[in-house]
Structure formats: structure tokens, C-alpha cells
Amino acid sequence: MHKTQDNRAWFLILPVVILVAFSAVIPLMTVVNYSVQDIFGPGQRYLIGLEWFRETLRDPEVHRAFLRQMAFSGIVLAIEIPLGVLVALALPRAGWKSSLAIVFLALPLLIPFNVVGTIWQLYARPEIGFFGRVINDLGIGFNYTADPISAWVTIVVMDVWHWTPLVALLAFAGLRSIPDAYYQAARIDGASRVAIFRYIELPKMRSVLTIAVLLRFMDSFMIYAEPFVVTGGGPGSATTFLSIRLVNMAVGQFDLGPAAAFSLIYFLVILLVSYVFYTILQRVSAQ
Amino acid sequence: MTMQTQTSAQPAPGIASRLKGSALSSRAIGPILLGLYLCFQMLPIYWLVRMSLMQPGDIMSSSAFLPTAPSFDNYRTIFTDPAWYMSYVNSLSYVALNVVITLSVALPAAYAFSRYKFIGDKHVFFWLFTNRMAPPAVFLLPFFQLYSAVGLFDTPLAVALAHCLFNVPLAVWILEGFMSGVPREIDETAYVDGYSFPRFFLTVFLPLVRAGIGVTAFFCFMFSWVELLLAKTLTSIEAKPIVVAMTRTVSASGLDWGLLAAAGVLTILPGAAVIYFVRNYIAKGFALGRV
Amino acid sequence: MAQIVIDSLRHSYDGNLSDPGALALKQVDLTWEDGRAYALLGPSGCGKSSMLNIISGLVRQSTGRILFDGTDVSDLPTEKRNIAQVFQFPVLYDTMTVEQNLAFPLKNRRLPTDEIRRRVADVAEMLDLGPLLKKRASGLGAAEKQKISLGRGLVRSDVAAVLFDEPLTVIDPHVKFELRRKLKLLHEELGLTLIYVTHDQSEALTLADEVVVMAEGEVMQAGTPEQLYERPSHTFVGNFIGSPGMNFIPCRAEGERLVFSGGSLPLPPALSRSISSGQSLKIGIRPQHLRLDTSGTPQIAAHLIELQPRGDSYVADLRIGETALAMRVPDDVALPAAPFGVSFPPKHTLLYADDSLIGDLDA
């Protein structure tokens, strides 16, 4: 769409800028401030430069949390994106069945994060939960409080359960925007189901799938409440992801300086990766 | 002339079978897959409902599929204890506040982004977007200090403002998508007809993007309703939201799973109601208006 | 190429054939001869697109048969029918190049690679797409895209017919003309059987050897453009074709005359016999067949209401008695302001009983 140049438009975005500045810039400045100081108490602060950053970057605990985080985000993206597309393909295109399926599908998205955690904490318990019991009945030892692999399986399945609907709904929106004529032309051209998916559906879903990847990457990278409720980061520190580690440092140990330095690095990593996605997204939607 | 039209009513040849075997079997895959997926999805929720109807002792001793000795005792406890039901009121009030604040600042901004080029437009847009990427954990302490300093700590307004951090960028993004779908000619016609900007915006433009506004409100509701970390940090007693009430109950009274499950079920209901209202726009909304 | 026969076809989208008003197609019987160009003309919702989709198999008819060269294809899926179809909006595979788009139908049918390359080159040559072959299809203009859609049909050597569903709707007027000519040329060169759906009568009349006019799920008339124009077999066709459409004057038979408000005309005895009592009669005449009566003793008087310039001629809105009529008047003829006489040449004056043509007044 053609846009006109008019700098008075700034008046329209001013409220947003002020609000976001208040709720983001001021706090961020505080974080920056902490990150370069050593704080013992009120009035006892010493400027120490980049020491906390160096310490954080060298901290093996942080390294492990970072690798865990990357693995987690990678795994859930690798499952949720294809599964979401599959569910979207299976959804009826229109009619009351479609509406009903969408209402059910969207349900996990509106459950508070900690309740999601509570649900899976109960559901995956070997002795009282359906999921845990069924897996143990299959002869597989499963106990997420003691066994790291069980804990990871629980957290990943929970995240798939929680967020695949988002991918499915996005993909569904992309599918619904394809005019019937495309499917008709494909039949005329003798295209197979796979070819229809590859050459019609997938290209049309490209921009929504980019949004899905972007949102899922950001949100999985910041995950806190769900694994915290289920495993508390354990057993040991097997499921201690970056946010859990950060909150432990800031609230648990009250290590404000290192926590702040950690925060900034954490934020920058997300920013960097998201910027790459964002650029791709802009390019895709420009086409 | 080689074509002929006949109007004589001939007996129609028998209706041939409409569906071929192969078409039928490939058509059945979709519903089966969807059915299986919905089972996977609904079972954990069912499990929560099942537990909410049971007493703690029964919960710990049974993994039977149906609830043992079902009763509404847990729900009764929640509805008669102000500490419980007021926490729902607190949650709903900051969510509602957040939706109102977010929409009122995001609507004009989204209009500006969808209609005008101006100095720094792309940078501001990306800067807003970065806030959607900021992990709430990063902002915990600064928020705590900031809202304490301005005397908002432990009020619904504090949480509502804090949630603007991620809801405002998202709202601007979604609304910009919907607004770009409205032809510019509408604006131009209205200005030619002598509408002032505020009058045009409120009486002509907003009704045109009401689906987008509905979807945006839905998303703000959703992300504000489900968030735990900031809501927990910025409240203590007065404004304690339900998500926090649940975590604190666990530690205070041991593990009353039944009560916890009932409280959990009650947090799902508002969401379910909201989804029902926007079900026809939800698919488009999830694509952030960009389909 | 093949002859296509449509045999007592009826279709309803909800599968309920008991209510004739709700049928998309009511009892259609037609034969499309091999190698001819047909236009399927009618207002929106008349069933022309349904007919097209049933021929190509995208829609399964409720009852009736479709025969290609005598073989019943009613139960064959689209991809087995050897039909090419071009849609209203160009359909392209965005991620492919023009060449890959053209090759797609052949690839799906697993033809050998060198055969595919040869045919794609031929079709590209025919449609002047040669220079674009390596380009991404998504970046092209609507006209090129529509050519590629057509090319995907032509690239298959075995197509029984090429179906067009209002393919020029999104094309600019000057390119439209060009494409239409190209299509006609290809039709003559390749001997294609063309079925061309449109609601634009000038497109139908210029492109087609024969035109089928449909309304409300029924075939009103099928014939050459001239037949449709000069002798519409139904008042609908008279109205629908021509701009302005045919004039119709309600009348009644009284002995040897047809009487209408504002005058009467002689009724030939042959015609009089084919009228049964109780039928509603109408006189039909094309605007350019109405003549200014300069005999000095005009029988029928007309009042001039308004003159509309149409380039080389005028269309005069007239009133005869209580009926409004249009009359085409050459540029060099001046119409008097006072009431004047008009004459109805018997050869071009048609009589309709219950909206169906029964003959002309020259009989």
C-alpha cells in the first residue's frame, strides 16, 4: 500500500512510545546500572565495569543452561511446526465442525502457564497421573522427579501440548487463504496430494509459518513457569533453563549484579536471533 | 446447427456411486488424525477436572480413569473463601485494565504505522517488537523497584502496566495488519467529506476494523491472563491474582491437589468463554491479520 | 480432441433434486462438436460455471452423463479426463519458474524428460513465453500469468477440450483484445475444442463459432452469433444479447391484426394458426430494424423521449402508446421533435408466444 510521508504521525505513536519507554526503557536502564556495579546493600555500591559480564560468560552453569535452552527450543520447534501443519491440514476448512475444533484446539493457549505446569505435574505422575501410569504400564520406567530423561520428555510433551495449537491455528489461517481455484487447477494438472502440499500449500503458508517459528522461538527461549512448576529445574539442574537460572540468581541468591549482566546477555541473544527471523519475515511478506 | 437442446424429460440414468473407495479412505485420514490429536489435547484437561472433583486422599490413592466419590466440595471451598474468589477478581481486573490501556494506545499508533511514513518509523516498529522478545525474567527486579517507587506495588494497575510491555507491541502489530487491509480511499473520502481526524477515526474507521480490535483484545486477554512471573512479583496481599494464589496455597497448606485442580479448572473457564466469542476470527487473528 | 456430449444432466449442490427451483442445472442436453469454439454465455449464477466444472469433473453432477467421444466419463476423476481448464484468476505455482509451471502437468503424468522439454519449448513458442521461461512465475503481470495457465493446458497433447472460465476478467482492456486474437489463432491452428464461459456478449460473439445462452440453470438457445442476434428463440436471449437489447411490445391477436397500445400490425394467417388462446404475445424487434416511416400516412406514432449518442449513430428512446422502445438512428438522420411515424419491417419483426419465438410477420 502506498503511504504518505507525514511526520505528524509521531503524535499518534507518542502514547505507545511513552508507555513502552516507561515499562521497558527505565527498567532496562536499571538492569544496565546493576550490571556494572557490585551491590552489598543500600548505599554500598561499587562500579566494577564489565566484571559481571566476564564472570557470566565464563560460568559453566550458564553455559550448560544455555545449551539446554538451545536444545529445548530446537526440539520443540522441530516437533511443533510439522505437527501443527499436520493438524491444520486435518482441520475441516469451514462449517460448525471447523469452529468447534478451533475452540477445542485453542483451549491450552488460554490456560495460565502455572496451571499448565500443574496439569502436567499431576498428569505425568506415575502413581496418580494418566500419562505417567500409561507409560509405566508399557514397561518403561518413568518418573520425572528422579530421572532426567523422564523430566525432559515431560517438559517437551507439555510444551508440544501447550503450543502446537498456536502453530496449527497459524497454519490453518494460511491454508484458508488459498482460493479454491488453486486446488482445482492442481487437479486439472494431475498433481498428487504431496505435490499439492509442496507447491501450493507450503508456499502459501510460508509467511504464517515464519511468524510461527518466530513466536515459538522467542517464547520457548523464555520459558519459565511451566517447567518450574513441574520439575523446579530438576532433577539436579537437568531442566534448569535460562529464565529459571536467572530467577534463581536474582530472587533466590539475590546476586543482583551477575543477574543483571546475565539478563542483558540473555536479552541480546534473543534479540539477535529474533532480528534474523524478523528480517526473513519482512523479506517473505514483501514478496 | 450441430447443437441441440431438448426439453423432453428423459428418465435420469441411475446415480453412479459418488465416492470411490480410494477417495473415501484418504478422506478418513484427516478426521482420524484430528480426533487423535484432540484426544491427546483434552485428556490432560480431563484429568484436571477429574481431580478437581475428588478429595486429597482419593487423589493420592487412585489412578482410575473415572473420579472416585466425585463431589463439588473443592469448588465450594473456593467460592466461599474470599482469599480464593477475590484473587479471581484481581486477575480479571488487571486483565481488563490491560486490554483497555493497550487498545487505547495501540489503535492510533497502528493507524500511524499503516498509513504514514515518518522519520524513524521502521526503527520504532522494530524497537516495539523487541519488547515482545524481552524475557519477563529480565525485568523482574527493575519492575519491582520501579512500581514500588511510584507507589503502585500490589495494585492491579501495576500488573496491567507491566503486561503492556509485551501486549502493546503485539497489539500494534496485529492492528497494523488489519488496518492495512482497509483501503486508503475510505480515509480520503472521509476527509473530503469534511470529517475531522478524531471524528473520522472513531465513527468511520474503528467500526471497519472491529474484527481486528476483537482479535487484538483476545490476544491481550490471553497473554495477560496466562502470565505468572510478573503478576507474582508485582503483587503481595491486596492484589494477589489467582495464578499466585495457586502457587502460594501449595506451599502453605501442603499439597491439596483437589483444591488446586479446582482452582485450575476455574482459570480455564474465562479463556474458553472468550475463545467461543472470537471463534470465527481466531484463525485470521492468529496470523496477526497478515493473511 | 473429442466430441463432448452432455446427456440429460441435472445438478443440485445440496443433492436434493426434488425442488426444481433450487437446481443449479435443470435438464441440459448438449453436444459440443470436435474442434469448434463455443461460448457459454449468461448472467452470473445461471449455471455456466457449474456446467464447466462438471465437464472437467471438478464437480460431480447429480444425475445425467458426460460422454467424451462416446465414452461415459461421469465417474472419471478430473485428472483422468484430459481436460484443460483456465480459471478467472490466474493460478500459478509461485515457487516455480515459468518453465517448471509449464512442465508441471507433464511431470505429474511422468513423461520422459526430453519429451517434456520439447513440448514446453513448443508451447512457449506458441504463446510468446520463450524469453520468460527461466523467470519466477510470481513476478509476472496478469496477462502473462493467464498465458501460462493456458500453456499448462496446451502443453498436454491429449486434451479433449480447453475450458475457459471468464479468463480475461482481470486483464487490461487493450491486452484483452490481444489475448482474444491469440486464442482465436490458436484455436484455428490447433483445431482445439474450446468452451469459453463469459458474461460479456461481445467476447462471446467475436470469439465463438457457436454460442450457448444459459439462464437459471437452463439452456435458452444455442446457435451461431447471427442466429442469436437475428432470431432469438426466447425473449431472454433477445434482451440479453445486443445493446440495447431487443424491443418487446405486449400485444394481442384480433382477427388478422396484432393490436398493441398505440397501434397494430398485420398478422399473417400462418402465424395466427400457431397461437393458442390464453398465450401472452409479444412483438420483438431489434432497435436498428425500426424504421422512420416517411410514407406520409404513418400508422404508428412515436414520441421522442431522449437521444443517446453512440459514436457513429444515436439510440433514440421512444414511446409508442404505453411502451418504451429503443431505436438506432444513423448520424445523418434527424428525428423530428413532434410525434413521428415508425414502421416495422415484417421480415425483422418477430412474434413471441409465452416468451418463445413462433415466427416473423413476413410469413
From TrEMBL, chain A:
| Keywords from the named record | Membrane, Transmembrane, Transmembrane helix, Transport
Please name one Pfam family that this protein belongs to: BPD_transp_1
In terms of Gene3D superfamilies, this protein maps to: MetI-like
Q: Which GO terms describe its cellular component?
A: plasma membrane
Work out whether the entry's keyword set contains Transport. yes
In terms of InterPro entries, this protein maps to: MetI-like, MetI-like_sf, Sugar_ABC_transporter
Ranges that cross the membrane: 12-36, 70-91, 100-123, 160-178, 259-281
| Boundaries of every ABC transmembrane type-1 domain copy | 66-277
What membrane topology is given?
Answer: Multi-pass membrane protein
UniProt subcellular location:
Cell membrane
Which terms under GO biological process does the entry name?
A: transmembrane transport
Q: Which SUPFAM superfamilies match?
A: MetI-like
Protein family according to the UniProt entry: Belongs to the binding-protein-dependent transport system permease family.
- What is the protein's name according to its record? ABC transporter permease subunit
Q: Which organism is it from?
A: Pseudooceanicola pacificus
Automatic annotation (TrEMBL), chain C:
Q: Which domain of life is it from?
A: Bacteria
User: Which keywords belong to this entry?
Assistant: ATP-binding, Cell membrane, Membrane, Nucleotide-binding, Transport
Q: Which residues span the membrane?
A: none
> Per its UniProt record, what CDD domains does this chain match?
ABC_Carb_Solutes_like
The answer to whether keyword Transport applies is: yes
State a single Pfam family of this protein.
OB_MalK
Q: Quote the protein name from its UniProt record.
A: ATP-binding cassette domain-containing protein
The record places domain ABC transporter at 4-241
For this protein, the record's PANTHER family field holds: ABC TRANSPORTER ATP-BINDING PROTEIN, MALTODEXTRIN IMPORT ATP-BINDING PROTEIN MSMX
Whose protein is this, by species?
Answer: Pseudooceanicola pacificus
The UniProt family comment states: Belongs to the ABC transporter superfamily.
